[in-house]
Design brief:
With 243 residues, the protein is of the alpha/beta class. The protein folds into two domains: 147 residues, TPP-binding domain (Rossmann fold, 3-Layer(aba) Sandwich); 89 residues, 2-Layer Sandwich (SIR2/SIRT2 'Small Domain'). The protein contains ten helices and nine strands. The longest helix is centred in the last third of the chain and has 13 residues. The protein starts with 7 loop residues before the first strand and ends in a 7-residue tail after the last helix. The relative contact order is 0.19. It binds nicotinamide-adenine-dinucleotide (NAD).
Length: 243
C-alpha cells in the first residue's frame, strides 16, 4: 500500500512517543492517572484563575519528560517518508515536538494541539523557547510574566477550554480528503475533531491503515497492523527508495 501510494497523509498520537519514554495521559501509568491535579495545568480556566496552580505548573514543566525526550525510530521513519517525496502532510495530536526534533520539516507538519517546547503570552503575540522561560523559573521566578506586556505565560499548547486553530484543522481535513493513503499511528482515534480525518478519507474511497497497539473504533473499515511503532515503522517504511 505504501509502495503504490504517492500522497500519504499521516496522523500520529501519543503512541508514537511512548517508546521515547513519554507516558500517555490517561493510561494506567499515565501522567494524569498518577497526578490528577496535572490535568488542571492544561485547563485554561484553572490556569488563568489560580496563581498557586500556575506556580506548581511551572515546577511540573521543569521535570516534564516530554521536554527531555529524544525521537525514536518511529519518528525517524517518518522523516524518511518525507524524503521519499510521498508525504503529503503529517498531522500530530502530540505536543512533545518530537517530529520537528527528528527532522520533519515545518511545511509538512501540523501540530494541531501545539508544542510544549514553546512558551506563549496569554495576552499579546509574544512567543519564545520554553527552555528560556524555564531558565527564569530555575532562576527563582515562580510564575514568570510576559517580558513584553506583563501578562500570564503558558506553554504554546491548546488547553482544555480553548479552541483549536481552525486553519490547522482545515489543513488536516484537506490532506485527509486529497491523500491516496491515510496512515493512523499510535492513536485511539477518540479525540475529535482530528479523528474525523478517518471518515473523511474513507468517504473519498481512500484506504486507511491503522498501526496501533490496541483496537480503535475504525478498525473494521481499515487495514490494521498491531505492534509497537518503533519496530513496525522502520519495517513498513524501511526502504522507500525501492518504491
Ligand atoms: P491516546 O493516549 O488516547 O492513545 C495512544 C494509543 O497508542 C493507544 O491506543 C495505545 O494503545 C497506543 N500505543 C501506545 N504505545 C504504542 C506503541 N509503542 N506502538 C503502537 N501503539 C502504541 O493518545 P491520542 O489518541 O494521541 O490522544 C490523547 C491526547 O493526549 C491527544 O490529544 C494528545 O495531544 C495528548 N497526548 C500527547 C502526548 C505527547 O505529546 N507525546 C502524550 C500523551 C497525550
Amino acid at each position: 500500500m505504501v509502495a503504490r501510494a504517492s500522497k500519504i497523509c499521516v496522523l500520529t498520537g501519543a503512541g508514537i512517543s511512548t517508546d521515547s519514554g513519554i507516558p500517555d495521559f490517561r493510561g494506567p501509568d499515565g501522567l494524569w492517572t498518577r497526578d490528577p491535579e496535572a490535568e488542571k495545568y492544561s485547563s485554561i480556566e484553572h490556569y488563568m484563575g489560580d496563581a498557586a496552580l500556575r506556580v506548581r505548573a511551572w515546577q511540573f514543566r521543569l521535570s516534564n519528560p516530554a521536554l527531555q525526550a529524544k525521537p525514536n525510530l518511529g519518528h525517524v521513519s517518518l522523516v524518511g517518508l518525507e524524503r521519499s517525496g510521498k508525504l503529503l502532510l503529517l498531522v500530530t495530536q502530540n505536543i512533545d515536538g518530537l517530529h520537528l526534533v527528528a527532522g520533519t520539516s515545518h511545511k509538512k507538519l501540523e501540530e494541531v494541539h501545539g508544542n510544549i517546547r514553546e512558551a506563549m503570552c496569554t495576552s499579546c503575540d509574544w512567543r519564545g523557547a520554553m527552555n528560556e522561560t524555564l531558565d527564569r523559573v530555575r532562576g527563582g521566578e515562580t510564575d514568570p510574566a510576559c517580558m513584553e506586556c506583563g501578562a500570564i505565560l503558558k506553554s504554546a499548547t491548546v488547553f482544555f477550554g480553548q479552541s483549536l486553530d481552525p486553519v490547522r484543522v482545515q489543513n488536516a481535513f484537506q490532506a485527509a480528503e486529497t491523500c491516496d493513503l491515510l496512515l493512523c499511528l499510535g492513536t485511539t482515534l477518540a479525540v475529535y475533531p482530528v479523528a474525523e480525518m478517518v471518515p473523511i478519507a474513507l468517504g473519498q474511497g481512500t484506504r486507511v491503515m491503522i498501526l496501533n497497539a490496541e483496537e480503535t473504533q475504525f478498525d473494521a473499515s481499515a487495514y490494521v497492523v498491531r505492534g509497537s511503532l518503533s519496530k513496525l515503522l522502520p519495517e513498513i517504511l524501511g526502504d522507500l527508495s525501492e518504491c
